[in-house]
Amino acid sequence: MTQPPEPTGDPVRQNVEFPSAGATAHGYLALPPDGSGPGAILIQEWWGLNDHIADVAERLAAEGFVVLAPDLYGGNVAHDSDEARRMMRELPVARGVELLSGAVDYLVSRPEVTSSAIGAVGFCLGGGFVLYLAAVEPRVVAAVPFYGVIQGELPDFSGLAAEVLGHFGDQDAAIPAAARERLHQAITDQSGIEPELRVYPAGHAFFNDARPSYHRESAESAWASTLDFLRRRLG
């Protein structure tokens, strides 16, 4: 059996490939300084698996989590919003969930991961997929969607096992207050789990410090509460 790596003092990121959805999938795996810890799936924005998501993976790993960021676009990264919108629309929700389920299988099989109960964190497109994945995957016990974009109908949350901490901007035209309220009601009614949906004085993508939309105060607050939530849920 493969043993976890020795502690290095710094997070370690590596490119990995794994079977998923009947094919070979790819992604980033970021290991914590201690070499092992609870697992977390990190799901990309609509831009793809870019440098920003890789940086967030390393930040999570530095906090003690074994992080897998699967590549949902097969190596493609968008360079403008039109391209990102096209790539997002070309990824069917069912296919994305299938790919992510394979990523969960791979993550919990890693010797560095200390439990089969994992977290899922995602942004924009990835925030929506956090909710889709958690709705069908009982091993996800902590779900953190940042301004999650739901494509089409809401998931069926009747099988949800995860606690949910959501982060949204009150100036986000893509996710108005009515959409947040609908999501809150659906999760509560269907699962019996009341989500915590936090709202910040910011717009969409306020966490992405590589974009003009970045709002430092909101991002720092959301990040601190995310780490606290993951530690409480995952140990």
Automatic annotation (TrEMBL):
Class of this enzyme: hydrolase
EC number: 3.1.-.-
Keywords, comma-separated and alphabetical: Hydrolase
Gene3D superfamilies tied to this protein: alpha/beta hydrolase
InterPro entries found in the cross-reference section: AB_hydrolase_fold, Dienelactn_hydro, Dienelactone_hydrolase-like
Domain Dienelactone hydrolase, residue spans: 27-232
The organism's place on the tree of life at top rank: Bacteria
Example GO molecular function: hydrolase activity
Descriptive protein name: Dienelactone hydrolase family protein
